[in-house]
Amino acid sequence: MDKQDLLGLFKELYNSRPDRSFFAPGRINLIGEHTDYNGGYVFPCAITFGTYALARKRNDRVFRMYSANFPERGIITFDLDDLAYKKEHDWANYPKGMVKMLADAGHPIDGGADVLFYGNIPNGAGLSSSASIEMATGVMLEKLFGLSVDRLELVKIGKKVENEFIGVNSGIMDQFAVGMGKKNTAILLDCNTLKYEYYPIRLDGCRIVIMNTNKRRELAGSKYNERRKECDTALQILQRHADIQSLGDLTPEQFEDLSPHLTDPVVRRRAKHAVYENARTIRAAEALKRNDLQLFGRLMNESHISLRDDYEVTGPELDAIVEAAWEQEGVLGARMTGAGFGGCAIAIVETEQIPRFIENVGRIYKEKIGYEAAFYHVTIGDGAKELAAGEFDLV
């Protein structure tokens, strides 16, 4: 859909024009997977795919929301006097949760709005469409109602929506990357302290390619919460023997000394991934700073192997597409990105090799899995924002 399509759809739905428009990106995580809720480092960046929100304030307390991605759901309506989660509200529980949590935090939302959402993030692809709609809604509410809300507070409220309203026990990485992203940079974020640093991404003749397995993943229904529980179990055991607040406090060497206390081999493997992935992430950021893309690529490969063998969150689709990528000429590294259980992987590929890379990986994947993958060239973009008239360009 282009700008005129969306403006026309808004008028058709609500018999008016929107006052303002907003955008929040999706995100990829270059490395540092399942470390965020373990108190470790992550290394995400915002991408130029994302969620658009066109909005117009109302004179009553009613919110009407429509997604061009789910037209069969129609307009979903709720008001400020009933902000409870309702299963039948489906996707709209994400923006509804932002309304509720902002109001609960003392920010005066004193009216409703008509809103049209449109996202060009493939749904269920693991590029953080949920955090994107949360942060698009947060910025929209901030601007429409003149709220004084710090961006980091908005990020934390988005996480609270995910955890307490939707029921997914995720970390803060997604909302942080979507809310705080900057063009052509990645963010090294310490999820324990929320200290962060921007790292310019200079790929020197290479590009990031997203490889979508086209296997949808449903986080709330996946084994995500199970993995977190296993890591919490490991932490509780290790805290009897070491003064640590999170698995991210441990170096690999310290973990190896303590690992005999983890007698359950599954729990030990989960904790090992969290600790080693954290160390890989710090090394990868340092490698990027030195422009050592070869080392960065090797660390990406090691990350996927750990996610496959120790954390067991990849599955046949992600493994097939990543292993096919590893075999191709001009590939520096490849790994799954996001929570796993389907969704997307990323690869750093020499620009001139990308057409052949897509052709070969696509063919191998279809032969192994039986259906096609999708591929996207990625540009690293800004975080959630209001759009000026000239910025409203759909990508």
TrEMBL record:
Its EC number is 2.7.1.6. The record marks R27 as: Transition state stabilizer. PROSITE patterns: GALACTOKINASE (PS00106), GHMP_KINASES_ATP (PS00627). It is found in: Cytoplasm. Pathway: Carbohydrate metabolism; galactose metabolism. It comes from the Bacteria. One of its GO terms (biological process) is galactose metabolic process. Residues 284-361 form the GHMP kinase C-terminal domain. It catalyses: alpha-D-galactose + ATP = alpha-D-galactose 1-phosphate + ADP + H(+). Mg(2+) binds at S130, E162. This is Galactokinase.
